[in-house]
Each structure stands twice: as C-alpha cells, then as structure tokens.
Specification:
Length: 318
C-alpha cells in the first residue's frame, strides 16, 4: 500500500497527462462477417469459426494481425507496430456494479479505496482532482452522492482490485494489444472509433463522453453526466459495447513508450498500468480518449470515478 505522498505525486502526474492529452448490438444471430458488411468494413484477416461454446456475457474475438497505434495519434500512440494476437473471449461490456457486488459477497473482498478510506474524483466546481473520504465502488461520488445503479460499470476499483475480480471470475485482464485488436474489430479496422467514424450520427451519440467545454460546462447531450448503463452506447461489429467513453478500462500492461516495448523493464513504485477506452469526462479539446488508439495510465493502487475494467478469457486449445 502506498503512502499519501506517493498518491499526491500520482495526482500531479494525472493532471499533467490530461494536459498533454489536450489538442489532440448486433444480435447474436449475425456472423462476424455479416456485422463487418453492415459496418462497411472488409476483413483483413482470415476469420476462424468461433468455438461452439462461448462463455455467457462474452464475445469471441478472432485472432489476427493488427497494427497497434495511430500515425496521426498522440506521441504515446506511436510508432505504429504490427502485433499478432491469438483468439480470445472478451466481456461484452465493462464489469458492472452488480457483477462486482457478487464478487464481494462471495469473497468478502475489500477494495483498496475502502482500505485507504478515500478515492479520486474531479470537483467540477473547482476543476481540481481530489481524494474524497468514503468514495467507493458503491458510492463513487462519495457518501453524499447517490448509490450507483447495478447496471453501471463499476468504478473506484484499482488495478489490483480488477485483477482480484478477474481471478475470481476465472478470467484475466486484457493486454492492451488485445484490447485494441478487439476495438479494431479483429480485422485491423483503421477507423478512429470502435463503432465507426463518428461520435454521433443524426444526433444519436455512440458513446458517453463530455459535450461542451471541459471542465467548465457539460451540456449532457448524450444524456449522462457521469456513468451510463453498460450496453447503452457504441455497439461494435463484434458485438462489444462501451469500447469508447463511459469509463476507462484497466489492462495488464505497464505504461511504456511503444518504441521501448521490447526493451527490458523493471517496474518501480511510480510505474503505471495502461487504461484504454476513454470516459464520460473526455472532451476532444481536452482528452480525445475514446479513440481506439488512445492510452491513459495510473499506478496500480489508484481508484478513480471514471476508471473500471472488463475481462478476457483464453480460448481453450482443442
Ligand atoms: Ca456524457
């Protein structure tokens, strides 16, 4: 467990990160190929037949070759590199509050935020990131805020909490390469978003993000100031939802420049884990984090009100 000084240092790094970032379902009856055709994309890899049994609540993500990153992205998204990914199953949506509650009730698990006695959110009046006493996965805005609905993504969970849940569920966190491969439809789709080209079509939003000017004014045109129910936005050709906006999602990886990805690495107390997908706080002039290639990062004990996770599962051989 980290001391308060380290946590404060982390807040400073997050604010710096956000500053840097500035400027920058289909139904189960459809096949992967049919969904791709509907989406106007062409498979670039040979799509294997899905296994006969797909775990409940998960989507089969065929393996293949994906180019990770974006030539027109932020420095952290470059250089683009080619990755070969094995097939896997992925949760259709972020882990919900109800799913996390089942884990807590079965195991008696106490989250790191509950252990610290506080967790992080941004004060929209002062525009400052703050640690709020009593904020937790059930009350992500703090004890004075509402109880979060069961069908919203769980937040205020650390990377360590997410790993514990995944192990209990017989799953694991995705690597960030797996996450991006899935967001690109398992076919190296180069469109900017997991669902397509545009954030909104004919006034209908594809993701829960921030409309207006962050952090001064949110017009809430997508209907949600904070989290939204999972599955409400952005269904992808593979049948995934919430792959952009709503909450950032923890991945397995330490945050490192792509150029150094094959170099030896020894994490320190300041090392951070990668998050993907963007959140309800993302406004393109500040943080265009709901793009497929966007990356964020926090130390593994950090809990925030706009960060959750989803799990993956290996496809059994044979
Ligand atoms: Ca919103």
């Amino acid at each position: 467990m980290k001391n308060n000084q380290q946590r404060i240092a982390w807040w400073a790094s997050l604010i710096a990160l956000l500053t840097v970032l500035a400027g920058a379902g289909c139904g189960p009856s459809q096949t992967v190929e049919e969904r791709a055709e509907d989406a106007g994309t062409t498979p670039k890899t040979v799509v294997a037949q899905p296994p006969e049994e797909i775990p409940e609540g998960m989507v089969y993500v065929p393996g293949g070759v994906t180019h990770i990153g974006a030539e027109d992205g932020l420095p952290s998204e470059q250089p683009v590199f080619e990755a070969e990914v094995a097939s896997f199953f992925m949760d259709e949506h972020s882990v919900t509050v109800a799913q996390f509650r089942a884990f807590v009730e079965a195991t008696g698990f106490v989250t790191e935020a509950e252990g610290f006695g506080n967790a992080g959110l941004i004060d929209l009046d002062t525009q400052q990131w703050i640690l709020v006493d009593g904020a937790s996965w059930q009350y992500p805005l703090g004890p004075e805020g509402p109880l979060v609905p069961d069908d919203h993504p769980v937040t205020q969970v650390s990377w360590n909490d997410a790993v514990a849940y995944a192990a209990w569920a017989g799953k694991r966190l995705p690597t960030e390469v797996e996450w991006e491969h899935a967001a690109r439809g398992a076919r190296d789709d180069r469109r900017p978003y997991a669902w397509g080209d545009s954030l909104a079509e004919e006034g209908a939003y594809k993701a829960n993000t921030w409309q207006g000017t962050f952090p001064l004014r949110n017009t809430v045109e997508d209907g949600y100031l904070y989290t939204s129910p999972v599955g409400a936005f952005g269904e992808t050709p593979l049948g995934l939802t919430d792959m952009g906006g709503n909450v950032w999602e923890w991945t397995q990886n330490w945050f490192r420049p792509y150029a150094d990805r094959n170099e030896p690495f020894s994490p320190t107390a300041q090392s951070e884990k990668v998050q993907r997908g963007g959140s309800f706080l993302c406004e393109p002039g500040w943080c265009h984090g709901y793009r497929v290639s966007a990356r964020s990062h926090s130390t593994p004990e950090t809990s925030l009100f706009h960060v959750g996770f989803r799990c993956v599962k290996d496809v059994a051989e044979g």
